[in-house]
Structure formats: structure tokens, C-alpha cells
Queue: 4 jobs
Job 1
Amino acid sequence: MKPVVAIAVVLGLLATSVVAAPTAGRALPAPVDTATAQTYLGELKVAADSNDPAYSRKLFPTWDKIDGTCNTRDEVMKRDGTNVVTGSNCIATSGNWISPYDNATWTEERSLDIDHLVPLKEAWLSGARDWTTKQREAFANDLVRPQLVAVTSKVNRSKGDKDPAQWLPPLTSFQCTYTKAWIEVKHYYALSVDPKEKDALTSILTKC
């Protein structure tokens, strides 16, 4: 390679960051197995939801800075895609993503939302109203548990703050993974389940 060309290549690499993420995890950390999920579900407190005091999204700070200019959202976009190219601000400019909720494929970051698998309002109704702001911030930016996932924007908005008794991913083959992830997150954060929610989770697990 000629010196001038080599310099140009180096400068090009410095201008953008290319991150290839593995596809095996299918967009979020693998949740616990079915047997563990059943055990966890049995340990969850069953209680009616409460919205007193009233929920506000502002009570759950997002998105935290993770590394340099990269925040939690940026990290999920890089993790959940392949051949992801980011600008100097860490925002993805291109890549390939598969939304696990509907199996749709995307090449533009703006086509996806980052879903809180257990929605922030659902967490509030089932116990997070008693947390500190720091605890709610940790929940809203959790990259360790299967709680954050890049999904088709339209599907995410149809979900809203519904629990599994009211909404499940339209891709049937992902519903078991979704259910086990839901239970794992609720168990880790000691959140309650309401009666209909528990019935739905129990029913889905019998098919996993």
C-alpha cells in the first residue's frame, strides 16, 4: 500500500468507529432457563399495581454516559446490531439490526427504539415508586440483565407500558424468551406481579 493511501485509510478509520456485535444473543443478554424462571416466578410477590404517587418518566433518568460520548442507548444499538458504524458522537449511522419482537430487519438507527422490556411505568406500579432516584436510574440503564433491547419502533409503541397479560411480542417464537426475561428482571429487582400478570406468565412458561 502506498504511503498516501495508507494515511487516508487510517484517517478514515479515525473518523468512524465500526463495531460488529455477535448475533447469537439475539438482541439481549440470554435470560434464565425455564426451570429457573418457574422458581423465580413462584418467589415473586403477588400484589395489585399501585400508581400512588403518580408515575412520571422523569423519575427514571436515561440515558447514562457509559464511555466517552457513548450512552446506554448507543451501547444497546452497537450490541444488538452487526456491522454497526458510529459517528464521533457514538450514534449509529448505519448497520444491520433484527428486531426480536417481530423479526423485522433494519439498516437505519431511526427505525428502532430501545425498549425497556419491563416498562418503566410497570416497574413503578410494581414497586419502583419506593426506590431512590439512583435505584430507578440503575434500572432504566441496566445492560447486565435482559432489560434493554433494540426493537422496531412501531411495535415498541404498540406495547407501551403493558404487561404480558396485555401484550406479547408478535413473533411467537420469541415469547418464551420474552417471558423468562420479564421474570428474571422482576425477580432481580424484587418487583411484584399482579394476579392476571402471574397467570399469563405461568401459562406461557408451560409452553416453553
Job 2
Amino acid sequence: MKEDFLHYVWKFQKFSAKQLKTTTGDTVIISKPGSHNFNAGPDFFNASIQINEQLWAGNVEIHVKSSDWYAHGHESDSAYDSIILHVVWEHDTEVYRKDNTPIATLMLKEIVSNETLLQYKKLFSKEKRWIACENNFPEVDDFIIQNWLERLYIERLEEKSIFILNELERNNNHWEAVLYKILFKNFGLKVNGESFLSISNSIDFSVVQKVRHSMQSLEALFFGQAGLLSENYSDAYFESLKLEYAFLKQKFQLSQNTVINPKFFRLRPPNFPTLRLAQLASLFFNRPSLFSEIILAKHKEDYYDIFKVAASEYWDVHYNFEVLSATRKKKLTRGFIDLLIINTLIPIKFTYAKHTGEDNVKELFTLIEQIPKENNTVISRYNKLKKVANNALESQALLQLNSKYCQKLKCLNCAVGISIIG
């Protein structure tokens, strides 16, 4: 038996509430079970419970055994003096507050329905499964799943906004500087995301603003800080970048001490860091009001227009320095722009709206529902159980579901798990 199950039982009152009695025989009537507290302190705040003829207002603490009260040291913690009811699965000892006054105890073991207990045991059985509800997931009502996915997507945006707001504080409330860093990180994708973020952190955005009038200066700045100009190639373009970077490094007193070198290993050529950095240089060169354009954009095609950029001419026939390729303009593809919309632009717009006291959730939902779902193993496995991901909102929500609930067995905090247990 786990405490989170008892939290679920209490929160949703999954027991027979008729003729409830404490372990000492006092009558219990639950007017309000309280608000679930997921942080430190009592488990449920602001409950309203009548014990015999006395109506109590206060907090509720829940344990598997009554003796856990002492195991957790609550008897000496004044934060628990406000407990009006101790809810347990098994009662094995009387409990007292810090001032030695007794606390009424309600034992759940005899009043929880057998069906609820059976479903709980099935869900958390030791049978080897990818996710705990694998056998039940296909039968869960579509309406429950859809509503839960929308809530999960908002939860995911809220989490991403924390990182963005932290960056905003570090960058003195300069939204363009924050966009610059988040774009860098996401241009690096999974393999080079942290490397590209470290490159952006090594170049103050004010430097980018000072040199953005010159494509060559931007390329030299980005390639140089990434450590990609340290070789000695007999290539005129490479040599010109190297000379420009030496000048910029001296002028702006640039350091590479904190930069993580980008990787080429196991990357497809279109994702080589050389190309992605060249495309970033082109983006900042061609879009001097990038942040404003993104905030004002309303439709999917607006974003495709904003990011309709390509690496400079040298890269039409190269993927790396001195490595020739078939002639092709190295522009950002719609698929890559979709990833930017999902991972950069929507989180930035969501956070900016919150920061300015606006509500743009409906607009962002409309946008992301037009973006195709992501294709990866996690999404494929959910869709194999039940086709639930049809667009990027749903695939993003499923990634949140998997990492924050399924893999951590937080089934009793999940709408799917709750619907299964009943």
C-alpha cells in the first residue's frame, strides 16, 4: 500500500461515507476533504469535518500506518498542530500533536470498496509493461484523454516558461536576448542543444546587435566561438572568416572557456553544426526585428515566411569547410521550422503573454494543432495502444505524460489512471 493511493482515495472520497467513525468511535461527517497539497506540510489544506457535534476547520494528514506520524517526526513539528483528522490505512498507535492533544484518526482499510482496491492492485502489479496502464489505455474514454492531453500541454508550456523567465532575469528583461539564446539552443537540436546554448552564452546579444549588419561578421562570430575556425584550411572563405573572427575576438574580448564543442558524429549533413550556425547567422542578418515579428505573427504561414532563410552562398556546395556537396540551397525546411514553432516560438509567445498579463492560449492551441505530430518511439508506442496523437499538441502532451507521469508511476495524479481505478 502506498500513500499516493490513500491521497487519491481521500481526495475523491472513494469509500463508504455512511456512518463513518474514528478509531475511538466518534462520528465523522466530511463536509470538505480539503485541497491537495503537493509541497511540504500537511497533505490536505482547509478541510471541514464534523466530529460528533463539533465542526472542525483545518488540515488533514494521511499515512499508511498511524505510527508513520512519529516516523516522520510530526509530533515535534508545529506545522502539524493544525491537523484535525489523521487518515490512515492501518491504525497501530494513537497520535498526538506537539502540545500532547490527541488527534482523531480515521482508518480506511475497512471502508474502501473492493473494486477500487482491485483496480489499484492491477494497475500497480509487478507484471512487466511499458507503462502501468498499458492493458487499460485502449479502453479509456476519448473525451477523458483529450481533455487530459490539453491540460498536459499547458503544463508543459508552464514548465518551459520557467526556463525562459530565468533567462529573462539573467538578461535584464531583454526579450530579444532571450529569444536569441532559445533559438540557438533549439537550432542545435538534441545532439548539440547544450553546445549551441553555451555558444550563445559566450556571446552577449549586444555583440550580435553590433555586427548583425554583416553576414560575414555574424558567421565569423558564431563559427569562431564554436571553435570551428581553429583549423588551417586552404579555403579563401574559411581564411576570411578566420581573420574576421580574430578581429572580433580582440574587439569584444570574447572568451571560449565555457563553450561546449559541437558534435558532427552521427548527424545527417543537413544538421551539421556548420550549416545550422550559418543559417542562424542568415536569420539574424535578414530579420533585424525578429522578436517583434514573432510576437505579431498569427498564422502558421506567417512563421514560415519569417524563417524563410538559407545559409550563405558558400554553403550551397558545402556541408563543412573544404567538404563539397551537391549544389543545393541550404534553407530551413518546413519540418525544421515546425520544430522551432513547437519548441521555441510557442513557448516564447506563451511566456511573453503571461508576463504582460495577456491570454493567448486559444491562439497558440489553434497554431500547434495545425503542426504535424512528432515522430519518435514514445509517440509511436502510445499510438499503437490507441491512436491519440494526430497533431503536435497531442504529441507534446504525450511526451509530458510519459516523462512526468508514466515513467514515474504517478498514475494517481493522472486522469487516465484515475479513470481506470474508478
Job 3
Amino acid sequence: MRTVEPLHLRLLRLLRDAGPASRAELGDRLQMPRPRLLAELERLVGLGLVAEAGLAASRGGRRSTLVELDPRLRFAAVDLGASSIDVEVVNGRLEPVAAYAEPADIRSGPKVILHRVNELLHKARVDGAYEKLDGVGVGVPGPVSFRDGVPVSPPIMPGWDRFPVRELLTREHGCPAVVDNDVNIMAIGERHGGVAHSIDDFLFVKIGTGIGCGIYLSGEVYRGTDGCAGDIGHIQVDAHGAVCSCGNVGCLEAVFSGAALAREAVAAARAGTSPALAERLAARGVVTARDVAEGAVEGDVTCIQLIRDGGRRVGQVLAGLVSFTNPSMIVIGGGLAQLGHILLAEIRSVVYRRSLPLATGNLPVVLSELGPRAGVAGAAVLASDVAFGEAS
């Protein structure tokens, strides 16, 4: 059951998502008595969260005064990938005012990576993007204790186990911080401003260096008791498959992910079964998932088959989830979403074939609308929520 949110949180989210509004409009939309609403607005003005925004357009009578989120509000959104750092500073409406993206190896450890994040945020301040931050949201590519703000035994993040990420960022920037896993923040971003906008029950599947699933149920992210719900990359799909980074055998992530696809592509190139991949390997000495995507577009049969095999594996896992959760939509994102409609068609085919007709009769399976921005978009939403929540 959805929790009842405090008035101030609903009010601030409404101004964030819908923009400036008159007091009368806010009262109607929130169904709150005018005296209570006015008192809450006055309190939020005093806290520096809300400000007057001029007069509304004339409708023939007296023009009402609009209120908006304070234009000085700033939130930091950080999406840490296995091989990248994406940072944005956004205003109260979650519109970017500064953005930085660069390659980075998450295996460098938390001190190195978070030091670089702080350097980028301080650069944004020096460049005039903000005077102070009001909240920081961070996504990391591994399991997270959302309650404690720390990664927990992340398979591809050596040195990060129980590292106090939230505490460090709160202390560094003097504002509340929140930490979640990368697929959850992508799901949050997609629901806020992407193809799943306002859909209450959906699955967001990230296929990249790892594979994970963000689960939205009844309008809220479902994280599970300890924060590791949706870790579908470690569901076994092949009892005789490759050893996974988690130590088990035949996990979905071990047989189809960025690294697994690159491994299969190299094998196909060396065996001579794929002219497109053999040509790229000879030219550059390496082949990647992008090379498989390009080879498939060129009609290379082996590349197409590699993508279909991966889509079939993902579809098998998703079919079970569809029967279990009965979502309204499945969104596919992450780096391997670049494999495009061959991957999507195979996932759809398996899900529709293996799930109950009642669960798939109105079930769109679509590509992410936000693409690589989904992570920072979701981190910005979380950053604003944690800042607004502390306005109690």
C-alpha cells in the first residue's frame, strides 16, 4: 500500500514537476484547505524552498500571484557506471545547468572515484552553476543498502563494500545525500521524464556491463528488505555456463552482458564464422558489443544470432517476472540497448510466448526514451526528494 506523503513533500514535488502555480491551483490539486496551504507555503518560503514567481496570465479578473520552487535550488546527480562517471547539476525543476561525463574504472576504488566526483562538482561551483547544493543523488553499479547509504558486496566494485558513500558526500557538500543502485535510479528517471512517465507498475531492465531490473510497484520503487531486489543478472539460466563475477555458474549476466557479448564476438571472429567481426578484429585487435550491433545492421548472420541468443536469455528471465508481478510495461535500457530492435524483438517474442496471455495482452516492451541520461535523471529526482523530505 502506498504511504501517505506529508503535505510539504506533495507540494514541493508538484511545483517541481508541474512548474509555477497559483495558490488557488495548488489548493485545488492538493485538495487542501486554503489556510493550511498558505501556512505551509509561508513556512517553505522561510526555508528558502519556495518563492513568488510574478503574476499569472490575465483571465479577465484580478491576476493571481504564482509561486515556484526557489530559483536558487540546486541538486547534484551522479551516475557511476562500471567504466564511466556522469555528473549533472540541476535546478529545482531538474533542468541541467552543468554536465560532465568522462571514462572511469569503478575498480579504482571509492576514494579515487568519489574524489573525482567531488572535483567535478567543485568545478561546477567555480564555473557558476551553484552557490550551494541542496541535495546529492548517486547511483552505483552494485547492490546498495538504501537505508544505510552504502554498497554491499558489489561483485564488480572491489573496495566498495560498506564504504560510507552517503556520509562522505553529505560531509563534503553540507547537504543531504542519497545512494541507490544504478538500475533503480534509471527506473526513477524513466518514470519521471521518459517512456514510463506516471506508469505505476513497470520493470526497467538495464543490460550493460551488468544486468539488473528496477521494479516499480504501486508507484514506488520496490527495493526489498535489504535493498537488493531486482538483481536478475544473477539468476541462473545455464547450469553449464560461464563462471560469473559473483562466483556462481551460468548467471544471466555471465552469458549475456557487455563483457560476455564481447567474449563471444572475439571467438566468432577468430573462428571465421563472422566476416564483419573478423575484419574489425584484424583492423583494431579488439571487438566490442558495438561491433556486434554494427555487424548486425550490415546483415552479418553471426552477429544477428549472437543478439538473438542474448535476447532469448533475457526474455526467459523476464517471462517469469511478468507472470510474477504482472507489470504494465517493460523498459529496456543500458549500453546494450544499442543492439536495438533485433534484441527487442527477441525479448518480446519470448516474453509473449512464455507468459500467460492475461499478463501480456496489454504489455508493451519498449526501449528507454532517456537512453544514457536515465541514470542522472533519476539521481536528480532522488536528490530533490531527500532535500524536500528534510524540510519537515
Job 4
Amino acid sequence: MGKNYIDIENDRGETLRYRKHVNGRGLVAHGAKVHPSAVVELGAYVEPGVHIAAGAHVGRGVWVESDADIGTNAEIAPHAHIGAGAAIGASAKIGIRTHVGNGARVATGSLIGDDETIADGERVATDRRGLRLAA
């Protein structure tokens, strides 16, 4: 039986240890908290300080930067990027290759389409069809 973690050196020369999440085999850094019922697919990276709630699904190739918060039953589609300190509300859906900026907030139940960009610090709320609501 092989080891259940890997060590990766970051840009500052520090070595970070990532463990393979039991649901999906994605890589979760030491210091991140991922609920056992959440799925982190193979090829996804979850950085230190991240919190992923129950029932959330993080797709292949997703990068969740430090201190981000992914709500209950949220769905992050493949190859999305969730910036540092961003928050994705419960049951929100983030599209393929979508970039959510640092400190951005996506409201509960929002639908963010494919290939969209949410700016750093931006607050977004949509209806079930993905139409943005007034702030």
C-alpha cells in the first residue's frame, strides 16, 4: 500500500504536505478542513486554511487557494479557480474554468456560468437561471 500524501515545494521554497482526500483522491494541504462527505476529485488542489463543508463537490483540476470557504452542497466544476479568502455559499454552482477572485463572495444558491470571472472582492448573487440580482 502506497503513501497517502505527497510533498510539493511552493514558489517561496517551502515544502507543503498534501494528503489524498478519501472521496475523489484530490490533494488537500495540511491545515485545510474538508468534511468527510465532500468530494475533492483527482487533480484538484486545496490549500491550507480552506474549509469545505458537507456535501460539497470540487471537480478535477480545481485550485482552491488558502482561507477560502466552500459552503454545504456547493458544486465547483472542473478547472475552476477559487481565490484566497473567497466564499462560495451553500448550494452555489461555479462553472467550468470560472475564476472567483480573492476575497470574492458568491451568495447561497447562485449559479455562475462557465468561463466567467468574478473580480477580487466582488459580491455576486444570481437567481436559479444564473441572472445576476441587484446588490
